[in-house]
Amino acid sequence: MSRRTRETDIEISLVLDGNGEADIECEDQFLRHMLETLAKYASFDLSVSAFGDNDHHLIEDVAIVLGMALRDAMGDNPIRRTSHAMVPMDDALVTVAVDLIDRPYVDVECPDALYIHFFRSFAMSSNITIHSIHQRGFDEHHVVEATFKALGLALKEALAPRDELLSTKDAPDTRRS
What we know:
Elements: E1 2-4, E2 8-15, E3 22-26, H1 29-42, E4 45-52, H2 55-74, E5 82-89, E6 92-99, E7 105-108, H3 113-126, E8 129-136, H4 140-158
Parallel strand pairs: 3-4, 7-8
Antiparallel strand pairs: 1-2, 2-4, 5-6, 6-8
């Protein structure tokens, strides 16, 4: 997946059943670190080339393209769909819950507005629901990183294959009579 605007140039390759390998080329070193963390904890293989005119545009557009790549990689195969993970990191304790259904929604407790925007952009472009609760922590770096770790663990579990669709609703009938 890619996105090129006057403000950014983003290319992302995502393999869901990978080994947690990450090759991230990005001007923002903290964003690079968070993407590597997400890949490791989700066991995704992730390749990113991301350049932008400022941190806000860069972080937003990376999240959008990453969300599009996740949605594309998920396909239509039945998956576990929901999961949650709690991660302690030094002073921080964060829980993230996800539902990988076509109902994009975000309620994220995060001390950094740019990363609230990241999670919102990611959820909206991938059509998933993300909730996070920041139970403890005073170091913003630790809280944000614990959130990425918990998101990765929750995504890994929610993407686990199932034999059948997990829904109480019937699948739409797309056959023609």
